[in-house]
Amino acid sequence: MNDRIEKRIELKAPVLRVWHALTDHREFGAWFRVALSGPFEPGRESVGHITWPGYEHIVWRAVVQAMQPERLFSFTWHPYAIDPDTDYSAEPPTLVEFRLEPHGDGTVLTLVESGFASIPASRRAEAFRMNDDGWGIQMENIRQHLEGTAAAAGHGG
C-alpha cells in the first residue's frame, strides 16, 4: 500500500483566489462541507462539524501546520476518524498539504496527504481508500466552488 495520496487539479482562478478558498475557514467550510468554529491559525487546532448529510455526527479536527501565503497550506489530522466512540488521539496523524502554483491565468493545486504507513494496521487500508476517494471528490468540490458550478455530489477527507 502507498503511504501517500496525491491529487492535482488545474483551476480557472488566480492563486490569490484559490488561497482564500483554502485558508478562509468559512470558504473552506463551504466547499469541504464542514462548519468550522473559527479561523485557521498555524499551531492551533481547528474544530467543526461535518455538514454532509449522514455525517453530521462527525467532529472535524485538524491542527494547522503551515500557512505560507499563496504557496502552501497544511494541517495534520486523523484520517477517516468517523467513529464517535473511538479516541483517535493516540494515533499518529497524517499531513495534508495544499500547494499552489500559478499556471497561466489560473492555478495548479496539488494535494498530498502523507503518513498512512503510521496509521494502525487495523484501519490503515480503509483510511487510505476512503481518503483517496474523498480527496478526488474534494478537489472537484473546490473546482466547482471557485468556478461557480453546481455542487459536487460526495464528501471527502
UniProtKB/TrEMBL annotation:
Residues 12-147 form the Activator of Hsp90 ATPase homologue 1/2-like C-terminal domain. Keywords: Methyltransferase, Transferase. CDD domains: SRPBCC_CalC_Aha1-like_5 (cd08898). Gene3D superfamilies: 3.30.530.20. GO terms for biological process: methylation. GO terms for molecular function: methyltransferase activity. It comes from the Bacteria. The keyword Methyltransferase applies. Pfam families: AHSA1 (PF08327). Belongs to the AHA1 family. This is Vanillate O-demethylase oxidoreductase VanB.
